[in-house]
Amino acid sequence: MAENPETDDTIETTKQNQSEEEVEHSDEQKQEDELRSLLLSDIGDLPLSPPSATQVNFVSYFITDFTKPGHDQYIYRHANGLCVIGLAPTHIAFKDEGGITNIDFNVGKSDRSVLKVSGKRKKNAMRSESNTALCKVSTAKDSYIVRCCVKGSLLEVNERLIKQPQLLNSSADREGYIAIIMPTRPADWTKNKESLITLEEYKAKKEVSL
Amino acid sequence: MADETKPASGDSAGLSNGLVSHGDHKSRRVYQAARSLHSGAVKDLLSLGVCERCIFRLVSVEAFDSDLSSVSASTLRSWLESGDEEAASSEESSCCIVCLGVLQFVFSDAKQTLVRSECGSDYAARVTDLVKEEGHEFDSFGLEVYVPATILENERAVLLYLKGKYNSESWLQSEKISVKDALKVLVLDPLKVSLGAKSDSSSFQIRLTYSKASDEAQGASETTRERKKRKTDEENGSTSMSENSFEKVYEPCILSIHCNKMPIFFSGRYFKYSRNVSQTRWIIDDERMGEASVEELIGGNILPACLGDSYKFHAAGREDIDSSIIQVRMLGSGRPFLIEVQNSRKCPSQQSLTEIEEKINKSEKKLVGVKDLKFIGSQCWAMMREGEAEKQKQYAAIVWIARPVEEKDIDSISSLKELKILQKTPVRVLHRRSPLERERTIHWMKVEKIKGSSHYFLLHLCTQAGTYIKEFVHGDLGRTTPSMGSILGCRAEIIQLDVTDVKMGDS
């Protein structure tokens, strides 16, 4: 078992390089650890199911039996005043077999889905009253008119629904939203609000757990 | 108070009659110029009440000269009047009906005291005192002079009168230097001497503003009717101006001095440690939102060191109040910013800036950190512009998903490079921004599991400037695609977001 000095040397150097790399690596590691502990320091206990972005950023309002029985809609109002409109879970359209199969924005005098609102001042936005028709949703059985519920400017309709109406069935409260309306004056919203009910009241009324 | 019989310029050793027959070339030239003026016009103007230097301005053919500054008004008067080198006017001249005392070096100060100066250097000394009160440090200055509009009207009236009497004279045809420019010619050099500074179109301006003492007493501005009459008279070629037209009361102007320094800039990078600190002052209905602002924590420390009037904060980008900008052992570059200070009186040294930086970094409440604070010149805007465009930003987000995180999720996310996403203007800013669809790039992502939780993970990502991260995670009602949720096929929410790095160009 003769010792080979050359190999020994090489082994020595490799060991040295390795430990240098290790030092570098552990420096990086330290930084990563420090970053991670900084990042995680504020959160406290992570709840099993945190509130959703909608719940955090919006106040939920509902209107039930709007112009016709069973026509229940939600109005999610953001802190900046914008209102997201959609179908509440108890809307009668969902009761039909097969759910909603089609949506048509061409109601009233114009096709709501071809609006081109532009600029900070939201030029060309359609003015809406609370009972202005927004769209028509159809099931195998029947079709139902959805209305604006809010007086203001119609900024956007969810045109994804045209190709994917099933979003209304699967997530009417998120990806299946129908439109975004900006109330033009604070006074308009205050007046509007009188005909709306809160989430608690809605739950109580419909005896539904959401 | 200089002796009225001597010219203020020094050089008249031994001669008691105000004459400098040899020695002072300047005064000699002025004397000769005075003698060469049209004597009829001079006499008329003197009796109307026009001051000596205005007479030079209006009647002389030669250019108005700074030499006039060193000869006292009374000496000038004696040279204009009789040419008698011995006589000297001993009355105090009344306020000029054209320049209202401006070229006579007479004004009212803030306390309404009348201030008279014999010559340009005396006047400059008074102005210097007032400038010093403003407290600026400077080695060069620009001079601005503002005079009331009535001076122009007074001048027009006198010229009209002169045209009426001496229409064909050649000296009347040349362009006359304005009162404003004449004052600058007279006082610029003496000011340079008494302020000890150079003159240039520099970043430090001294503004001399003359204003009417009172409305009635200034040969008050023309009424519309008077103006119409004057214009028609001019057109008709008739001049109704006579010596009687000038019988109003004239009072010297009030002089106020204002010094202004152009804004100076400081650059640096900041870190934000608190989730309750907004970037800029945020006040709604008189109530402050958040605990403090980055702008005030930094600007509020720099402003006093500059003895400035106010400051403006500019940053290359912004983050939400509830996001922090992380600093790990001085890594992470922080967000670039500029502080612009208006009307600073002094420019703090780099040493002072370093001390300010330390003070902010060592403060008890660790809200904000600063690095690389330094003075920066006119290239600051180019720096900000290039920063805005090029920067990539790195973030760390805490994400929750509706189902447990699996290894394949970690792999599928990390494998996405240069992912293009389309973001419609987020609902949370849609009220104040244009409804647009913006394409953005997520350069890379990395997932780290969090101990003790199967639904949460740490997401590190590097994105193009202008990407809305929160919306990329929760999808913003499907208006950002793809989103974390759509990639993983389930609902995703963002719990916390921090900026870990802001790269600018090569830095």
TrEMBL record, chain A:
Record-linked InterPro entries: Abitram, GCV_H/Fam206, Single_hybrid_motif
Highest taxon listed in the record's lineage: Eukaryota
Any GO CC annotation of this UniProt entry: nucleus
UniProt feature, compositional bias: Acidic residues: 1-11
Region (Disordered): 1-33
Family (UniProt): Belongs to the ABITRAM family.
Name recorded for this polypeptide: Protein Abitram
Organism of origin: Brassica oleracea
